[in-house]
Amino acid sequence: MQLDNPALTVALALAAGVLAQSLARHLRMPGIVLLLVAGIMLGPDALGVVRPRTLGASLEMLVGLSVAVILFDGGLNLNIVRLRREAAVIRRLITIGAAVTAVGGTLAARLGMGWPWPVAILFGTLVIVTGPTVITPLLRRIRVTHGAETALEAEGVLIDPIGAIIAVVTLEVVLSGTLGGAAHGLLGLTSRLALGALAGTLAGLLIGGVLRYGRIVPEGYENIFTLSMVLAVFEASDAIQPESGILAATVAGLVVGNLESRTSRELREFKEQLTTLFVGMLFVLLAADVRLDEVAALGWRGVAVVALLIAVVRPLDVLVSTWRSGLSARERAFMCWIGPRGIVAAAVASIFAERLADHGSPYGTEFRALVFLVIAVTVVLQGGTGGLLASVLGLRRPSEQGYAIVGANALGRAVARTLARAGEEVVLIDSNPREVAIAAADGLRVIHGNANDETILEAADFEGRRGVLAVTPNEGANLLVGERVRAHARAVAALVAIARGKAAVTPRRAREAGVHLLFGGPIALAEWIAALERGEAELQSWRYAGSEARFPERPGASDGEARAPLPLVHWRGRAATPVSDATTVRRGDVVVFAVPTGPGASGPLALGVGEWVLEEAPALRDPGVAGAIATSPADPPGEGTAARTTPFATGGRPSAAGVARGTA
């Protein structure tokens, strides 16, 4: 078997990387842990089937292109609104904090390893980087408070290119060994940072502008267009000024990510998949290139250096950078512990080891081994205990807690009341002062603002919800909210209401956007809001007596529009969820319908044939339109005080006692 085959090495690294990260996802552990294990097991120290040295000079090119895509993806996920909120802390982390880490890392390497000052300084500048490939998945898993999350994620993305450029300049100075080389290096640092920032900004505006406004790129080509442009700007910037491309790729991602386009969601998914692929491949290749005996040879000296970085240097970095900031003491303590190194540190260390060896330095092997020891220990220790520490400090945000409903109109309030009665936490969002005032007077939690503003969605903690519902009269706005939710929190269900008939938003377009349709499909949206507002409908509970099926088309809906019953909330046992096109019903399930009461309404007759039976259920009327809910919020349909529903009283208002009973 020909194992000295570069193509085989790359193919096996790709496959092993994906398998290792898939297993890590199932085990809910940092992916890099299993990637390091996979690299060691497949490398020369074990099976010997992955041989990075067969790639020769191509390895450095492969590393560079992969890192460009990884950091572009990191920039793509940074939200400029959040960055502005923690701008002072982030700015200090990537400047003052970077300097503190560089000095601390240098002293740790000098004292612990006994290296000469030039090599120790090189190590100190390299460990400036943290890494979005480790921090971002960790933060998504443990969901800490927004302040700490934003600062750590931004530091991980922005410090990587800055730290890598500083380390490269330091290497040039170390290898030149002259005062003139030092001056040239300082000038090169400034020009690299300036060129990278400028090239990235221009490339980001170009990519984002084409995706947002133009039709130059045919449909379906958007992702490959973006990928090709990112790689082009990376290489072009490097050609003008070596090592500036890494910053250009990061800044381009930041710009594109904050320019909403028709392909934002698809682009993020595509880049995230590429990042997963490249991170896996690189870690397997780079780990396979490190010998276990090289790491073991470091002994207690290496352990002492890592301990100093974790216990002294990182806390000092964070405490100096967050001094007199808006972050709490608990957030600062958490940040002091979280500073794992990632793929950029590994990639740059491997390149530096080769260049040191080429110049006759005996420290290249030790240098790479120590950096990999730092990566392994920080990822395992800090990544493995980050969730526990966040829980102890009380920094974890709740997840899958109730629903956010965009639209405090009568329909939105009816859904909110029914979900609240199930004990679900509900928050409404609306920019209409009248609707906000009615919802607030009825005891519902409501936020006044535009849901397309990221800060308003964050105020509703949309990332911690089971789902976000958009029920405004404007179906285009509903779809936009759904797309925004899907782009920033794919684990959260996005459910939108769209209008029946000649509407701008079709079911197909909604499904392509990755959102579900509320109420089982298109409805007479404006008519239903008006009917509920005028008190021409009541809420009723109906129990399903048929066999399991996808939620059926509402009887008469295509003919009677708002005259047919509208399904709002589906109950199974004590769990309630909004009805959508993904809802299935089983025998014994209960569905709360809005049933028209005016002339020509099909009402209960449309449901009472065979499969649906009207419950002797409590009144489920929307207090914002008529009366209060007559039973405890914890009682599911059929379990509270029996009382038939009655039509809404037009313009009725709830009593104070009724509001108290109707509020979860």
Number of strands: 13
Name the average pLDDT. 81
Q: Count of helices?
A: 26
Which CATH first-tier class of the largest domain would you pick?
A: Mainly Alpha
- Oligomerization: single chain
Q: What is CATH's topology name of the largest domain?
A: Na+/H+ antiporter like fold
Domains counted in the coordinates: how many?
2
Distance between the termini: 68 Å
Percent strand equals: 5-15%
Describe the largest sheet: 6 strands, parallel
Give the proportion of residues in helices.
Answer: 55-70%
| Spatial order of the strands forming the largest sheet | 3-2-1-4-5-6
C-alpha geometry: elongated
Question: Helices and strands: which structural class?
Answer: alpha/beta
Low-confidence stretches: 553-560, 603-609, 617-664
CATH architecture of the largest domain: Up-down Bundle
User: What is the C-alpha radius of gyration, as a whole number of Å?
Assistant: 29 Å
